[in-house]
Amino acid sequence: MTPPRVVIVVAAARNGVIGRDGDMPWRLPTDLKHFKALTLGRPVVMGRKTWQSIGRPLPGRPNIVITRDAGFVAEGAERVGSLEEGVQRAQAKAEGLGVDDICIIGGGQVYRDAMSFADIIQMTVVEADIEGDTVFPAIDASLFEKVFEVAPPRGETDSHSVVFTTWRRRTKAVRDPGTALLEL
Length: 184
Hints:
Blueprint: E1 5-13, E2 17-19, H1 29-39, E3 44-47, H2 48-54, E4 63-66, E5 78-80, H3 83-97, E6 101-104, H4 108-114, E7 120-126, E8 134-135, E9 144-150, E10 162-169, E11 173-175, E12 181-183
Parallel strand pairs: 1-6, 1-7, 3-4, 3-6, 4-5
Antiparallel strand pairs: 2-8, 7-10, 9-10, 11-12
Enzyme class: oxidoreductase
EC number: 1.5.1.3
GO molecular function, one term: NADP+ binding
């Protein structure tokens, strides 16, 4: 049996910005509905700062929070010490739930680390260049190919227009226990 796919779910401005001062620098109810549809029923893995910016467990999904602080309590979520441990726990939970994907939902460092082994990137492109202090890494087109793109109608309370894109890894990424990445 193949392990559940690792799916990065992110919203980023055209210039790569994903955050400012610990929050998202936009208001996009259309994207929040899309995010919920992509993640509901699937384990979500996030860093401590993302957890704290959300402020509560995301309902209908097992929440896994990464932090090196062994005393950190994430009420309603499971705390793990590394991204690798988070992915392993999420994949075990996904198998128990009978779902094919786990979702990596931020923040910046977690995304950068997950890019080396993610299978899919579900990216909402916010149609603006926005100032911010956290950015998403550039997608390497030699490793990922864009397989889907649609511009939904702008919601009346959305601060910007968006484009939903799906990127698929061109080659199968395999991690060995020593965390080395092998391309098959």
